[in-house]
Write a structure and sequence with these properties.
mainly alpha; 12 helices; 261 residues; 0% strand
């Protein structure tokens, strides 16, 4: 019966058969330190390579120049962090992604312009917030979206006119007035919906005639006074219903406040 961990046949990373006798770590097998098909630095299967370095972290540094990218990438998870800068120009993005996860934050600056978006996304996730401004114009919208999530609030208006709606949605979630008010006229309905959730109540009149019913629905959940009354007569049944449900409650509260004022 084949062991569960042997569901994928053992094969060397370059397609040849695994030769334990010729392996530089042959002595480990005699000590049950590795096992073909389960824990092996020669294997093509990343999980088996991972098991090897997890068990033998002290060997990771010696494999950072291995010809197989999976070996280099997994060794980079366990290697001495001071050995990692030498891999910044590694030809495989899988290796450079590991660097982006482990390098000291100040050294991440060198990876801000990496050619692969996944590397830059990881940089945007870890770079000190005060250094993120240098990535607001990244070519990839996914990178810029991560930047918008962490950029200091004072700098967020720099991204309020980003070309991508997803990025502007991230900005709308965090930006403060008056930049938030400028997004009330954004061409993307999803951006305006977020603004309608956060805009000061006295300014919600801007959404009474919004072309998107979900924007008006959001406004109906927060508006008061004349704006709420107008939304209770909205052309859409859902918007009218939401506004109408709130009208009696607000009238009672207003009456009570006036009575005890």
């Amino acid at each position: 019966m084949t062991a569960e961990w042997m569901d994928i046949p053992a094969q060397r990373w370059d397609g040849a058969d695994i030769d334990c006798d010729a392996c530089a770590h042959a002595a480990l097998r005699a000590e049950a330190g590795c096992e073909p098909g389960r824990t092996c630095a020669q294997d093509a299967y990343a999980r088996r390579i991972e098991r090897f370095f997890h068990a033998h972290r002290d060997l990771a540094d010696a494999h950072l120049a291995h010809p197989y990218f999976e070996v280099r990438a997994i060794a980079a998870r366990y290697a001495d962090v001071f050995q990692l800068p030498g891999l910044m120009d590694d030809p495989d993005e899988t290796v450079r992604m590991q660097l982006a996860l482990r390098l000291p934050q100040r050294q991440l600056l060198a990876l801000r312009t990496d050619p692969h978006r996944e590397v830059r996304i990881r940089v945007a996730q870890r770079l000190p917030a005060d250094l993120l401004a240098s990535m607001v114009a990244d070519d990839d919208y996914g990178v810029r979206a991560f930047v918008a999530r962490r950029l200091p609030e004072a700098l967020l208006p720099l991204m309020s006119t980003d070309a991508d709606p997803m990025v502007r949605c991230e900005v709308a979630q965090r930006v403060q007035m008056p930049a938030l008010w400028r997004l009330a006229r954004d061409p993307e309905p999803q951006v305006r919906r977020i603004v309608a959730q956060r805009l000061p109540v006295p300014l919600l009149s801007a959404f009474v005639d919004d072309a998107d019913l979900l924007v008006r629905w959001e406004a109906a959940g927060r508006a008061v006074g004349d704006v709420l009354a107008q939304l209770s007569r909205d052309a859409d049944e859902e918007v009218r219903g939401r506004a109408s449900q709130r009208l009696p409650t607000l009238r009672i509260l207003s009456f009570t406040e006036n009575e005890h004022g």
